[in-house]
From TrEMBL:
SMART domains: Iso_dh. PANTHER family: D-MALATE DEHYDROGENASE [DECARBOXYLATING]. Residues 4-347 form the Isopropylmalate dehydrogenase-like domain. GO terms for molecular function: magnesium ion binding; NAD binding; oxidoreductase activity, acting on the CH-OH group of donors, NAD or NADP as acceptor. Pfam families: Iso_dh. Keywords: Manganese, Metal-binding, NAD, Oxidoreductase. The keyword NAD applies. This is Isocitrate/isopropylmalate dehydrogenase family protein. It comes from Halorarum halophilum. Its cofactor is Mn(2+); Mg(2+).
Length: 351
């Protein structure tokens, strides 16, 4: 059985971490008796600067032919950030209607959290960020009325179908986990979108009587993820809140260098897009010190969705053992002085 993977390294450390993770994924496949075939697409900011677009016109058709996509990141100081986001990974999420952005985080070692009093596996949160609508529908505009009275409008859109499907996915995950779901909302100050969102959550909850549902306002949630991160299980939230708070939960469990994500459509057969939560990190690009673990764990999520559960576990076990071993070479974001290559070699020896 061979899985056909599109590699879309992108820019900056996106390229470094995909190049680091790929041989480890191939190694895990080899030891679990399946093959991965990879096709590499050199699309990103250099292409944008040369040809005016990140992707060629037939990019989505070509990606559609693969079983899954492993992405690094897009972003470059020479290109506006909204181009590399909206015309990059967001365009892929939209094209394939990848409405679930699954972002699990786990504390692997007490030394990885900036918080006191938490040890191995004490924090284990599965985030379900709505990924297809909301604040990121790209609807709005600017109007310059002259005389210093320019205005800008940015609209967010939530549909019943759009909310229902991601909320259902989160409830399903809660059934498989601790049976506890937190809904992050802001229905006290925003009367249309968030109030509607909460109503849909309540409707879906009726089908899941065994799941305990908690509603948290996003401001309180930001505090609680720092003060009691160990009490969360599954979390669901709108696109923008999910974007912001998953950086926070990543930080609590060791930082962006460890945080993977899966953009998926559980209903169809569109390829999932697997990528680290982090961006292209221009500040450390080219130095060979990017932490490849978020990319490796994104590969583990990809294997899991491709039905290769034991290879996914092998990758996760290697990462957990690496993180728990104070003698192993860790990258500078984790306080070590190891390089990307050192981490790859260490993980390889554990596979
Ligand atoms: P982008 O615009 O592409 O999102 P960014 O400037 O927001 O890029 P991120 O990539 O999100 O940057 O990174 C934010 C910070 O976290 C940077 O200081 C970066 O060095 C650090 N960081 C992110 N990913 C990693 C990683 N894999 N290893 C080490 N440090 C990282
Ligand atoms: Mg960023």
């Amino acid at each position: 059985m061979a899985h056909d993977i599109a590699l879309l390294p992108g820019d900056g450390i996106g390229v470094e971490v995909v190049d680091a993770a790929t041989p480890l994924l191939e190694r895990a496949a080899e030891t679990h008796d399946f093959e991965v075939e990879t096709t590499r697409y050199e699309w990103g900011s250099d292409r944008f600067l040369d040809e005016g677009s990140l992707f060629p016109d037939d990019a989505m058709d070509r990606l559609a032919d693969h079983d899954a996509i492993l992405h690094g990141a897009m972003g470059d100081p020479r290109v506006p950030d909204y181009v590399t986001s909206i015309e990059g990974p967001i365009a892929i999420r939209q094209a394939f209607d990848l409405y679930v952005n699954y972002r699990p985080v786990r504390l692997h070692d007490a030394g990885n959290t900036p918080l006191k009093g938490y040890g191995r596996n004490d924090v284990d949160i599965a985030w379900f960020r709505e990924n297809s609508e909301g604040e990121y529908v790209d609807i709005g505009g600017r109007l310059d009325r002259g005389g210093g009275s320019e205005l800008a409008i940015q609209t967010s859109v939530y549909t019943e179908k759009g909310v229902e499907r991601v909320v259902r996915a989160a409830f399903e995950a809660a059934l498989d986990r601790e049976g506890y779901l937190t809904n992050v909302t802001k229905s006290n100050a925003l009367r249309y979108g968030p109030v509607f969102w909460d109503e849909v959550v309540e409707d879906v909850a009726e089908s899941y009587p065994s799941v305990t549902l908690e509603h948290l306002l996003v401001d309180a949630a930001s505090m609680d993820f720092v003060l009691r991160p160990d009490e969360f299980d599954v979390v669901v939230g709108p696109n923008l809140f999910g974007d912001i708070l998953t950086d926070l939960t990543a930080a609590v469990t060791g930082g962006l260098g460890l945080a993977p994500s899966a953009n998926v459509n559980p209903d169809g057969d569109a390829p999932g897009l697997y990528e680290p939560v982090h961006g292209s990190a221009p500040d450390i690009a080219g130095e060979g010190v990017a932490n490849p673990i978020a990319a490796v764990l994104s590969g583990a999520l990809m294997f899991e969705d491709l039905g290769e559960e034991s290879a996914a576990d092998a990758l996760r076990d290697a990462v957990a053992a690496h993180l728990a071993d104070d003698g192993a070479p860790h990258t500078p974001d984790l306080g070590g002085d190891g390089t990307t290559a050192n981490v790859v070699a260490d993980l390889r020896s554990r596979l």
